[in-house]
Specification:
The complex is a heteropentamer of chains A (229), B (217), C (451), D (192) and E (339). With 217 residues, chain B is mainly α. Chain B has helices at 9-15, 30-36, 40-64, 73-95, 97-103, 114-122, 129-159, 181-216; strands at 161-162, 165-166. Chain C has helices at residues 6-11, 25-28, 130-139, 152-156, 180-187, 189-203, 217-226, 247-255, 275-287, 317-323, 364-367, 380-384, 391-399, 403-408, 419-423, 430-450; strands spanning 32-34, 40-44, 54-55, 62-63, 68-71, 80-81, 86-95, 101-109, 166-171, 207-213, 233-238, 270-274, 293-299, 307-312, 331-336, 343-344, 358-363. By secondary structure, chain C is of the alpha/beta class. The chains are: A alpha+beta (229), B mainly alpha (217), C alpha/beta (451), D mainly alpha (192), E mainly alpha (339). The structure holds flavin mononucleotide (3 copies), riboflavin (RBF), iron/sulfur cluster (SF4) (4 copies) and FE2/S2 (inorganic) cluster.
Chain lengths: 229, 217, 451, 192, 339
């Protein structure tokens, strides 16, 4: 149907013209992309910051301000760009007093990587909250790690001494024990293991109580720069 | 273009929806389709993004076809498509962050959707703007229709809901597998089976009619 | 030269194969009887493998028993002799076993003749050189009597540079029902050993082995009794298994050696002959009797009185059956040869030929085919196939008409022994499908050539 | 170390690109008719995936931190041209290898498994080694799925598949059953 | 002769057939399963019979509806659909709602057999396709094990069986953990004797190792299956679990527990041996079995699920065409096999 008549060779565009047209297209496309990027950037950054803030506030009750901290050159400092594996968030109350850390951690779950954030009060040696950021666990089973309020409540008062352990549902008897979810033992154990790994990673790296980095300027609202991408 | 003379706008529009449905009939663009159709909302958003990209790039390609050198046309199509995809990606991220999180990596993958590139090569680059856009609209609607039917079947059975509205009450036992990857493959396989069956029935019926006519002569 | 693999010695047989019920007891104890001469004999010109013989007699010509009636049409062809004293009635088309027509010499027996062969002192075979010996075998019209009817003199024409070290006499008789070789070994051990002696010397083989399946123990005993103390001949008892008689399987069973695909036994220094063939050799050289009669087993549930018979070649099957009481009314199928590889016959008018080892009559209970089910890939056919082919795959490919692919699965190596069909629980006619596919393949190159 | 094992096993079995992420379905459904071809396509894909992981790491580390919005275009352009370049190099250096694998390269470069790998590796913040292991696992998993599928499909050619089921419909159901079977690997090595 | 010749049949040889037919083999298999059915009824009450009827009904009805008319009688006659339903039923937990069991039977035949072209054409074990479908669809119901009772409860039927279609079941009794679950999640071993007799939690058919072995012996004597497959599975499962046990006895159970717990015996004897979906050649059968044993040990000890027999068999089913292709026997008189 679409018999294409080959153009005579004399009419073939030169390779400079080809390169030029590709370059031109690239340029226009670049401009369009930068345009949309600039246009949406504020909303996107705000969204991300809000999500992160909400998560941090959720795992650290009583916190209303936060800043991103990274472990650089042997000490914990406020950072703008996250440090791989060694980034956490400091949580402060309205008056700028330090309350606790929100620590992100991730690891393999039943199906795929589970990423979570948990709240850690170093002074009391207590975990006070846990929020799943990302997971692909089975709907109806593994997704109970964030849908099952009873399970999530396990993490509102936990003393990881020395580690948290998972026990069969209904047998929780010590402050370092977590009731597993029936039918999703693997996922529940994975959550616990991921927190334990987070604890292990930060052991010895957090400053002594009282020495935590303070908010740079209590008056200024802190902005945690979310990672790009 | 002169070949446009024997085209009919309406025909170009509807063919993509049923007769040449890109998914059910041509079996194109499967990957994004199966990956995100575990709920009706995801399916619609993905379909919408695809519609935007396909219509936009078809329009541009048809409009610019005189200036597009044949030798580098594929690269240029891809640049055009990628631009639209990036636009869609950032807009969704800004407007629907929740859905964007679930669709995850699959929005950028629209670039690789062979259906879109295929339409540029096979249609938009050879026809006028009006038909190119009609064709793109039909194809994308067909695509949306396919995504939506798959997504809603999977959501209804797999979660007992449609658009997150529970349909069957508390005690409904969800068919978890429908939301999991095997459910995607199997449901689409069964839908294709159904399409084949309808086609076979139609053919048999037409043959019967022809037979009857021949006999009555 | 023959290093015996100890494991093979223990097993003493080839691998795979099947175990159909023997049914030999019906005739194993029945001595060979002679069928009286009848009136009409039909000698097809092509009853051996190779070119048909060329008639050397005319219609109306009088013949005496044993007279040459047709000479070889080529090197791979052999002589025919008149089975009776009588007169040529016609030379023309006659019924063949597969229902088609074939050129044959029809002879009317002289009702008053004595039908005796002239007594003869035999031939001084020791003085013959190899060329003369081979010519003599062709003169005698001897073909392989194990079923294939391959002219014996061709088998003995060993190409330059090859050496026959071992003579293997095939007394396996693995086909059910048949006992003709069994009786022959029991009743004519002297002739058999005589023939073995002739072949040993003429072929230059160092040793002869007579392979007999263990269900013919009396034959083994009798042969052993007749063996002289230092004769290079041994009798080996083999476990009962089909198709032990297929020559490559027998070689594997006896020597533990595989004849490479596409090659002949003589390529590894072995000559294989059926016991009937060897006895025919002895008869020719000792008493100048050409191949004009053979031992035939009549058996099967449809045969009124099973028997082992000496039948002049050319005797219509009808006459043979009449001699032993005819067929039972419930007979549904008559097979010439064994039940596994023989050919069903369409008419009782076909004659007994050089390769006819048995006439078997079957009733409904054997011929009712099992209902066919889809192949369930149970692998029984694989474990049956002595050639280690994949009959299941071959049958599926044949059904899909993917004949060329079948070549990759070595369909050409199949000897059509039927073990696979026998073993298949789904009743799939595997060997039949294979035969049809081979036919197709055989015609394929010609078609392509014509294009 | 443990992490690397998990990245590999996850990409190979648990979250197989084809059977769990639905990436690379076109070759999986389109080219898996013959075992031989499938295997070679799998190898070629693995190769391109590894190149992709390298490119993605390079772009992420040196370019995209400055211009994240160019991610998609950069990935496409850089991966496609690198593969094109390697294709030419192979053609020159080893015509045999080119004949075996090279013919598949143009087919692969724009496919979503390749782009998907780059995007996943970026989203998960893999470093170079992790990215390479991820690519290796994904490629091996893709090859495994392709080869199993091809074996199954060659067999169905000899079966009496009902006319309505033939073609993509049956292939999708086979993929679904394979995907169900691969669910057995869920949680593998994650508890250790 | 006055008598007319009989009308002779011309049927090519071989005339003789070995006696066994495909329906015979199928009948043998379900006969050998009857003791297991009785034991299941003894341990779990007559609800077990209802459950088995539901899977069989699902299987047979699907087969009947989707088979075109001329072959309908044949597919019922060959008894393989019955067997699929029965085998599927025996792999289910005793308290599974009947509607789910029926759906499982339908999925087994529909997805596992009909769409492939019926008996002999399917490449995955239909019963296990059905079970995998059910496990993926209703993971909770499929892993809720009611405890084994005794003759006292023979006529008590669990309420969960009668859950309405599409509705979640409500269980009467507390569920019990299976020996494998106890091992995996609580590091608790179950005695060998109990595993043999069968009064443990688990699927209907798998609890009594002794009866499964007895059925296997019957099939072995009748030569209805390829003995190499179970032999290879037992050997490889024992070997690999033994090696792991040597490394860390507290963590990895030994060979005996591995063999007698869960569905290994049942799967090896009844499901891996499905002729249609296992390799043709003897060498292939060994490889197939060894692969299953290896995968079972892998999934049980390192995977997320307590049991992996079903997945192991399905995965090796998927590999069967490849195994068949590369284990063609060496053709007689040749250096290599075909292909
Ligand atoms: C042949 C057969 C295969 C099975 N395969 C699996 C399997 O792969 N996965 C599974 O979770 N259960 C499977 N089951 C059921 C389990 O064996 C179950 O009964 C077992 O005891 C697991 O219990 P648990 O997972 O609750 O510990 C199978 C049962 C049979 C009879
Ligand atoms: C389809 C399917 C999905 C599953 N999803 C999960 C899951 O997301 N998380 C999990 O921990 N276990 C999951 N499981 C594993 C089983 O439920 C497993 O038997 C369970 O973890 C055992 O825990 P229990 O001893 O508490 O019953 C899944 C099993 C199946 C069959
Ligand atoms: C499947 C099969 C079975 C055979 N069985 C016998 C047999 O039992 N006895 C026999 O003498 N020849 C049998 N033959 C023929 C032998 O292979 C071989 O041709 C014969 O022994 C050679 O001797 P001859 O030329 O003297 O007949 C069989 C051949 C085939 C293919
Ligand atoms: C020894 C033996 C084992 C069998 N095992 C199964 C089985 O596990 N599952 C099944 O659905 N059918 C089984 N069948 C029946 C039949 O082979 C099966 O339904 C086919 O796969 C259907 O094509 C078995 C048959 C035999 C003879
Ligand atoms: S007939 Fe051919 S395929 Fe069948 S068993 Fe004999 S040799 Fe093998
Ligand atoms: S014996 Fe028959 S059913 Fe068994 S594999 Fe061979 S052909 Fe198939
Ligand atoms: S080309 Fe890529 S996106 Fe398109 S269907 Fe194939 S794998 Fe999916
Ligand atoms: S052209 Fe490529 S993307 Fe499109 S269908 Fe074919 S393989 Fe898939
Ligand atoms: S003896 Fe075996 S067929 Fe002749």
């Amino acid at each position: 149907m679409n018999q294409r008549v080959e153009l005579p060779t004399a009419n073939q565009p030169s390779s400079t013209r080809l390169a030029l047209s590709v370059a031109l297209a690239g340029l226009i496309s670049g401009i369009a992309i930068i345009g949309i990027y600039e246009a949406t950037l504020p909303t996107i950054t705000a969204n991300k910051a809000r999500q992160l803030r909400e998560a941090v506030f959720k795992v650290l009750p009583g916190v209303s301000r936060m800043q991103q901290l990274g472990f650089v050159d042997g000490s914990l400092k406020p950072v703008d760009v996250p440090i791989e594996d060694l980034t956490l968030y400091g949580g402060y109350d309205n008056g700028g007093r330090f309350i606790g850390y929100a620590i992100p951690s991730d690891g393999p779950g039943f199906q795929d990587t589970i990423a979570l954030l948990y709240g850690w009060l170093p002074r009391e040696g207590r975990i006070v909250g846990m929020e799943i950021l990302d997971s692909r666990e089975t709907p109806g089973l593994g997704d109970k790690i964030y849908k099952d309020a009873v399970f999530v409540a396990n993490f509102s008062a936990l003393i990881p001494d020395p580690d948290i352990v998972t026990v069969k549902k209904g047998t929780r008897s010590a402050p370092n024990e977590v009731d597993a979810i029936t039918g999703a033992t693997i996922s529940s154990k994975a959550v616990v293991r991921i927190i334990n790994e987070g604890q292990a990673r930060w052991r010895g790296k957090l400053p002594a109580p009282g020495q935590e980095p303070s908010l740079p300027d209590p008056a200024e609202s802190p902005e945690a720069g979310p990672g790009s991408g | 273009m002169d070949m446009d003379k024997n085209l009919d706008t309406y025909q170009e529009f509807v063919k993509g929806i049923w007769r040449d449905n890109p998914v059910f009939v041509q079996v194109l663009g499967m990957c994004p389709m199966l990956a995100v159709t575990n709920s009706a909302v995801n399916a619609l958003v993905m379909g919408g993004a695809t519609l935007f990209v396909l219509m936009g790039s078809s329009f541009l390609v048809a409009a610019l076809k005189q200036w597009i050198p044949k030798q580098v046309r594929i690269s240029l199509y891809i640049i055009i498509i990628a631009t639209f995809v990036t636009v869609a990606d950032y807009s969704l991220l800004a407007m629907l962050p929740g859905v964007h999180k679930e669709l995850g990596a699959f929005i950028p993958l629209i670039v690789a959707n062979c259906m879109i590139l295929g339409r540029q090569e096979a249609f938009a680059s050879r026809h006028g703007i009006r038909f190119a856009v009609m064709d793109a609209a039909g194809m994308s609607l067909g695509f949306v229709l396919a995504l939506f039917s798959l997504g809603s079947i999977r959501e209804i059975l797999g979660n007992g809901s449609l658009f997150n509205i529970p349909l069957f009450g508390e005690t409904f036992e969800p068919w978890v597998i429908m939301i999991l990857p095997p459910g995607g493959f199997i449901t689409l396989g069964l839908i294709l089976l159904f399409f084949n069956w309808v086609a076979a029935r139609k053919k048999a019926f037409l043959e019967q009619v022809a037979q009857a006519e021949r006999e009555s002569l | 030269m023959w290093s015996m693999n100890p494991i093979r010695l223990l097993k003493g047989s080839f691998r795979h194969g099947v175990h159909p019920e023997g049914h030999k007891e019906q005739t194993a104890d029945l001595p060979i009887q002679r069928v009286p001469f009848g009136s009409r004999y039909v000698m097809p010109l092509g009853q051996h493998i190779g070119a048909p013989a060329k008639p050397v007699v005319n219609v109306g010509q009088r013949l005496h028993r044993g007279q040459l009636i047709a000479e070889p049409g080529a090197f791979v062809s052999t002589c025919l002799h008149s089975p009776v004293t009588g007169r040529v009635v016609s030379i023309g088309p006659q019924r063949h076993i597969d229902g088609t027509f074939t050129r044959a010499i029809e002879i009317e027996a002289d009702p008053f003749a004595t039908q005796q062969l002239a007594p003869s002192p035999g031939l001084d075979w020791r003085s013959l050189d190899m060329v003369e010996f081979i010519d003599q075998v062709q003169q005698a019209g001897i073909v392989g009597m194990g079923g294939a009817a391959f002219p014996a003199h061709v088998k003995y024409s060993i190409p330059e540079g090859q050496q026959i070290a071992e003579l293997l006499v095939n007394g396996a008789e693995c086909e059910p029902y048949l006992t003709n070789d069994h009786r022959l070994m029991m009743e004519r051990p002297g002739a058999l050993l005589q023939g073995v002696g002739i072949l040993l010397e003429k072929l230059g083989a160092k040793r002869a082995t007579i392979g007999v399946e263990a269900n013919k123990q009396e034959a083994i005993d009798i042969l052993n009794d007749h063996l002289g103390p230092d004769q290079p001949i041994r009798v080996i008892s083999l476990p009962v298994k089909y198709p032990q008689g297929a020559e490559k399987m027998l070689i594997k069973a006896v020597y533990g050696k595989e004849v490479p695909a596409g090659q002949l036994p003589r390529d590894i220094g072995v000559a294989v002959n059926n016991v009937g063939t060897v006895v025919a050799i002895a008869d020719w050289f000792e008493s100048r009797m050409p191949l004009i009669e053979r031992v035939v087993t009549v058996s099967g549930p449809g045969a009124a009185y099973p028997a082992n018979l000496i039948v002049p070649l050319g005797t219509p099957v009808r006459e043979v059956l009449r001699f032993c009481g005819g067929l039972r009314p419930e007979t549904r199928e008559v097979v010439m040869g064994g039940p596994m590889m023989g050919s069903p016959i369409a008419s009782l008018d076909v004659p007994v030929m050089k390769g006819t080892s048995g006439i078997l009559a079957f009733t409904d209970s054997e011929t009712a085919r099992p209902r066919e089910y889809p192949c369930i890939r149970c692998g029984r056919c694989l474990e049956a196939c002595p050639y280690f082919l994949n009959p299941s795959r071959l049958a599926r490919l044949a059904r899909a008409r993917m004949f060329t692919e079948m070549k990759a699965y070595r369909v050409t190596d199949c000897v059509e022994c039927g073990s696979c069909t026998f073993a298949c629980p789904s009743g799939i006619p595997i060997v039949q499908l294979i035969r049809a596919a081979k036919d197709n393949l055989a015609h394929e190159p010609r078609d392509q050539g014509a294009e | 170390m443990n992490e690397l094992v998990w990245i590999f096993v996850s990409a190979l079995l648990i979250n197989n690109f084809v059977l769990a992420y639905f990436l690379g379905l076109c070759p999986f459904l389109g080219v898996s008719g013959r075992l031989e071809t499938s295997f070679r396509l799998g190898l070629a894909t693995t190769f391109v995936l590894i190149v992709t992981a390298l490119c993605a790491w390079f772009l992420n580390t040196y370019i995209l931190i400055h211009a994240p919005y160019l991610r998609l275009i950069c990935f496409i352009v850089v991966i496609a041209s690198t593969v094109q370049f390697i294709e030419m190099a192979i053609k020159k250096l080893s015509p045999a290898l080119f004949k075996a694998l090279g013919i598949f390269l143009p087919l692969i470069t724009t496919n979503c498994a390749i782009l998907g790998l780059a995007i996943f590796a970026t989203n998960r913040g893999y470093n170079l080694v992790e990215g390479l292991i991820f690519a290796l696992g994904a490629g091996a998993g893709f090859t495994l799925a392709m080869v199993l599928m091809a074996g199954l499909r060659e067999e169905t050619e000899l079966s009496d598949v009902p006319a309505l089921m033939q073609g993509t419909a049956l292939n999708l159901i086979i993929a679904g059953i394979l995907s169900m079977a691969f669910m057995g690997f869920a949680g593998l090595f994650s508890s250790t | 002769m006055s008598r007319k010749d009989p009308d002779l049949l011309i049927q090519t040889t071989p005339v003789l057939r070995q006696g066994l037919t495909t329906p015979h083999a199928m009948r043998d298999v379900w006969l050998s399963l009857l003791p297991l059915v009785l034991a299941a009824t003894w341990f779990f009450g007559i609800g077990a019979l209802l459950l088995l009827s539901a899977t069989i009904a699902g299987a047979l009805m699907t087969e009947w509806v989707f088979t075109p008319e001329p072959r309908r009688r044949d597919v019922i006659r060959d008894q393989s659909g019955l067997l699929t339903g029965l085998l599927l039923g025996l792999t289910l937990p005793p308290g599974l709602p009947l509607w789910m069991a029926f759906l499982g039977g339908a999925a087994a035949i529909g997805l596992g057999k009909i769409i492939w072209g019926g008996l002999g054409n399917n490449l995955f074990n239909p019963a296990l396709v059905g079970r995998a479908f059910l496990l993926g669809t209703f993971p909770i119901a499929m892993t809720t094990w009611s405890p084994a009772g005794g003759p006292g409860q023979l006529f008590e039927i669990q309420g969960s069986l009668f859950a309405l279609p599409f509705q979640s079941p409500v269980y009467d009794a507390v569920s019990s953990a299976t020996p494998l679950g106890l091992m995996k999640f609580e590091q608790q071993s179950t005695g060998l004797m109990r595993l043999m007799i069968g009064n443990t939690g688990g699927s209907l058919g798998e609890t009594s190792g002794f009866l499964v072995l007895l059925g296997g012996l019957f099939l072995l004597l009748r030569r209805d299956f390829d003995w190499r497959i179970p032999a290879a599975i037992f050997a490889s499962a024992a070997l690999f679990s033994g090696l792991l046990h040597l490394v860390d006895p507290a963590r990895y159970p030994g060979p005996l527990f591995t063999l007698f717990s869960g569905s290994l015996l049942f799967g090896a004897i009844y499901m891996a041996t499905d002729p249609v979906t296992s390799p043709l050649s003897p060498r292939g059968a060994w490889i197939f079995g060894i692969g299953i044993g290896l995968l079972v040990v892998l999934i049980r000890n390192f995977g997320g699920l307590p049991e992996g027999v079903m997945y192991a068999i399905l995965l090796m089913n998927a590999a069967t065409p490849l195994i068949d292709r590369y284990t063609q026997p060496r053709v007689f008189g040749r250096k290599a096999g075909p292909g």
